[in-house]
């Protein structure tokens, strides 16, 4: 298909996630260690229309960060906060970053 559609067009646009349709709180991870998911993760964050979204940006590979104690604590804290109606992020703002940690 890349030979048939080498540039972004309707065919490829149809394959993109429809993040603007997400209506539930979203906790999005983005790794700057590789280009594999960083662009899509940050674009998804921007495309979600509501404010109940959090972007975690890290400097390590996604799987390494996912199992760090700080990350696990954030992931555990978020559902508790949401169930209490507190839409603050585990950090101090809806957009938290651990880049460089």
Q: How would you characterize this protein structure?
A:
With about 100 residues, the chain is α/β, with parallel strands linked by helices. It has a domain at about 25-85. The chain has 4 helices and 3 strands. It has helices spanning about 10-15, 40-45, 60-65, 70-85, and strands spanning about 25-30, 55-60, 95-100. It starts with 9 loop residues before the first helix and ends with a strand. The relative contact order is 0.17. Mean pLDDT is about 80; it is low at about 95-100.
Give Rg in angstroms: 16 Å
Order of secondary-structure elements: HEHEHHE
Instruction: Give the biggest beta sheet.
Output: 3 strands, parallel
Number of strands: 3
Structural class designation: alpha/beta
Low-confidence stretches: 97-101
Instruction: Count the DSSP helices.
Output: 4
Strand residues, percent: 15-25%
Task: Round the mean pLDDT to the nearest integer and report it.
Answer: 82
Q: Helical percent range? A: 25-40%
- Please give the oligomerization state of what you see: single chain
InterPro entries: AB_hydrolase_fold
Describe the secondary-structure layout.
Blueprint: H1 10-13, E1 26-31, H2 38-47, E2 53-58, H3 62-66, H4 69-83, E3 95-98
Parallel strand pairs: 1-2, 2-3
């Amino acid at each position: 298909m890349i030979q048939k559609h080498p540039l972004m067009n309707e065919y490829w646009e149809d394959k993109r996630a429809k993040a603007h349709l997400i209506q539930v709180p979203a906790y999005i991870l983005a790794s700057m260690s590789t280009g594999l998911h960083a662009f899509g993760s940050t674009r998804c964050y921007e495309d979600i229309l509501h404010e109940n979204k959090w972007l975690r940006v890290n400097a390590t590979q996604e799987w390494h960060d996912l199992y760090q104690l700080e990350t696990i604590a954030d992931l555990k804290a978020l559902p508790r906060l949401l169930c209490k109606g507190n839409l603050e992020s585990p950090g101090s703002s809806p957009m938290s970053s651990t880049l460089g940690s």
